[in-house]
Amino acid sequence: MSKSNNVYKDAYNRCLRLLEETSNLPSEPELGATLGVSRTTVRGILARMAENGLITWDKRDKTVLRVPKEEDFFPEEETDSLSQIIERSFMRRLLAEGAEAGMQINELELARDIGVGTTSVREFLIRFSRFGLIEKRRNSHWVLKGFTRAFALELADIREMFELRSAAAFVALPGDSQVWDDLDRLETEHRALARDIANRYPEFSELDERFHRLIHSASHNRFIVDFYDVISMIFHYHYQWNKAGQRSRNETAVAEHLAYIAALKSRDAAKVEDACRRHLTSARQTLLDSTPEGRQAIPAKRNKTL
Amino acid sequence: MSKSNNVYKDAYNRCLRLLEETSNLPSEPELGATLGVSRTTVRGILARMAENGLITWDKRDKTVLRVPKEEDFFPEEETDSLSQIIERSFMRRLLAEGAEAGMQINELELARDIGVGTTSVREFLIRFSRFGLIEKRRNSHWVLKGFTRAFALELADIREMFELRSAAAFVALPGDSQVWDDLDRLETEHRALARDIANRYPEFSELDERFHRLIHSASHNRFIVDFYDVISMIFHYHYQWNKAGQRSRNETAVAEHLAYIAALKSRDAAKVEDACRRHLTSARQTLLDSTPEGRQAIPAKRNKTL
DNA sequence: ATAATGTCTTTTATCGTAAAAAAACATTTG
DNA sequence: CAAATGTTTTTTTACGATAAAAGACATTAT
Predict the structure, then answer these.
(1) What is the pLDDT of residue B226?
(2) Per DSSP, what are the bridge partners of residue B144?
(3) Is the pTM here over 0.90, yes or no?
């Protein structure tokens, strides 16, 4: 079972959706571009679609015969990449009770538990190590440093440093820059979400990420941009498994974002700094609340540094 | 040729040095602790030493018979770990002429050229990717982003942000903290080096790293501390393969460090910031000079931000 | 003659496996 | 009986092999 064909299956599912919208599929290279896969995979998809009576396929002609049914799709769990599977499984352990700092991580055991080869687990751990939650002992095991209060504070500090700098760079961008349009669009989305927050609050997470990534992109610094991956990862799993108070948290955050956006549009550096700091302070508290040691006030000093 | 025994060979060589100083080797666990290897490896070493007539070994008794000769040592190149070999080889290509941004990196080709398995190369590239010089295309090749002027500037910006913050945290540490002793010791070493700079300037590189790591440690932030790995990596290879003007560069840097140390000891935040900025500005210029597009003045704005 | 399709080659992703090294357990010694 | 040695088991490190996926080359159709 050398390698799963999840790329093919996932692309196949996404391609099924395209059938609902057209009566003729485009050329192989074009399809490949839209689906983000190679022509080899595209041809595999087309072959199966023809076989299952979804299309007729003869050279350039790819005519849609029928709309896909539920049973035409591959099951969702077969479309995940191996690294996603490992990541989810690992994060579940990490954020579960009993994941104490100092614990050892055993590659072989992890691999056996998840049912994958050790190589994939190793590669995942190496990639994951840049998040600062685990550490390698040379020629030996990994050590879990834990999702602790200290981690949350260190993360929040860097985030604040980076985002304040990015926000300052943002307002310095010329008026005809693309970012202002992007910001307008995000503002509209925020307002729409705010109007129906009671039902749509779970959508905030994704909007939040897009908003902050836009701001960070203004820094034009790869280390700042890349650092958002750490934040994103932590928040992603955090939101997924810790739903307590989620609605009110998101409601507050949307309001803070709108104030932040208004400040950015005013291009007043002082206002921006204030709005940014305000939002990041409450984000920091949210994160702290979710740590095992959490629910303590923020030491006043921390916010004043920089 | 599943796995090389470089850990054993390296530890063996280091253990030979111990023979020069004592007539009796300590217990197996103690030896393991000093050499940083497991008892399994220690016993392997002892067995070979006994076999080669360097010691007699009977249970607790490990008597030294003779001082090691040149030919007792394993050749140096056999003591390098695979990842070191790959790293060196990769960095040579990276910093050589013709390593243009946008180039593709081929795992298989790299592995064949270096003469190692693909897994090791993959793992190296994943680890290396956090330095921001390469990027992965999903299910496909890596892309070289290049050691460009942009890279150097982005690196220097973050370094400045982090070091200014660390230096500020440093002077806020209580007077009885260990760091002041460490700083005193570093100062002494700097003075000694300065006195004989003409001969000893190549030793600066290592001192430089220890000094900056001490300052960064005061931040108590793992992301700041870890970021120094990026700087360290770049400077390490940079110094190794770009010796032009090295002596004068190091001479300047030593002087800047001494001023910086004096500022830290004064505990005057303004003086510290000034000395720190001054040093980092010249370090930035050194780095810029070494990029292919280098040798241009620093844009004035850059230093004023933050 | 450009862009698509058809075919073949190369590279990546992943596993099983084996040696090196670490770690755990059992036994002896001071 | 605590710490060292002797022995066995487990884990890490690394390779070669193989299916999936990408990419390159050859051919055909508009």
Answers:
(1) 97
(2) B134
(3) yes
